Amino acid sequence: MCFSSETGKWVTKSANYMLYMHQYGCDGAFEFDGKLYWADMQCGLIVWDDPFGDLDKKEKVECRFIPSPVHFKDVLVGGGFIQCVQISGEGEGYRGFLSLWRLKDNGGEGEWSLAHKVSFSDIWSDESYLAYGLSEVIPRYCFIHPWEADIVFFHIQGRIFSLNVRTKKVESCGDGYSSIIESVFVIPYVLPSWPTSLPPCLTAGNAKEQGNKYFKAKKFNEAITCYTRSIALLRNAVAYANRTMAYIMVSRFHEAEDDCTQALNLDPLYFKGYCRRAIAKKELGNLEGSMEDVVSSLELKPDNKQMKQKYVELKSLLEKAYGIY
């Protein structure tokens, strides 16, 4: 059923069903980039690409299906990405693993990439975990941070703590609340501004500008935090490209490549997206992929001296490595 805020009425629409013999179980729903998503933890996402179009002109809603890479605990938007959490080896002690997957391409059947995979034994042995006196048991998953791409919240023995999956460090931990039962269900909620809310484009712009200031001051991790907040408020190619440069400066090249891909999905003609992804791919050892992006950038700006120089440099490296070009 679809509700129209203009008419104040509910409208029933039929939809195509793409899961065949599987009985779909809706474990959650969310909006991202103008699309609606329904999640089934066992199989994947159902996507409605145009939920805000003219419903009167649609006799049937056409949805599509993105299969999940694994059976996941949850799928939510975090740091400008659709992310899912997988916990494997529960109940197996030190063999447990925490994995964070990201949807790199939400078109067609989608493309997931494994962003991080860490063992709980490594998490338990980190000094930040030991400092809070947390037990060496696999904690209960709570939610993904809505702004920070690498932060996941967990619940253990009456305490909620946040974990940076990339660094394996506990970043915060709340006091115990032993009077509350162990079966805690947590919903992430971003509080609105008070007393009046600014348009997302303004608050996103402010966060991006603050990120630029941190970048100029060479405070790259702080810049990443600001750019991430900007993207969470309003996705645009420039914010992704800015965060790319901050990632490059701290040698986080996989994240830099992913951000440029997101920027180019939003704007396929974005020159800086190709330039910066070429840098990230080169640092990751993908010389051919880097050359492809350099060529794409020169198709947009044939006279760009910097990219011409990059082309010559990569051509020489490829000739030495593979005898091509």
How would you portray this structure in words?
With about 325 residues, the chain is an alpha+beta fold. The protein has two domains: about 160 residues, no CATH class; about 120 residues, Tetratricopeptide repeat domain (Serine Threonine Protein Phosphatase 5, Tetratricopeptide repeat), CATH 1.25.40.10. The protein has nine helices and 16 strands. The strands form five sheets. A four-stranded antiparallel beta sheet has the order 4-5-6-8, with no helix packed on it. Strands 9-10-11-12 form a four-stranded antiparallel beta sheet. Strands 13-14-15-16 form a four-stranded antiparallel beta sheet. Strand 14 and strand 15 form a beta hairpin. Helix 3 packs antiparallel against helix 4 and helix 5 runs antiparallel to helix 6. The protein is globular and about 55 Å long. Keywords: TPR repeat. InterPro entries: Beta-prop_At3g26010-like, TPR-like_helical_dom_sf, TPR_rpt. Pfam families: b-prop_At3g26010-like.
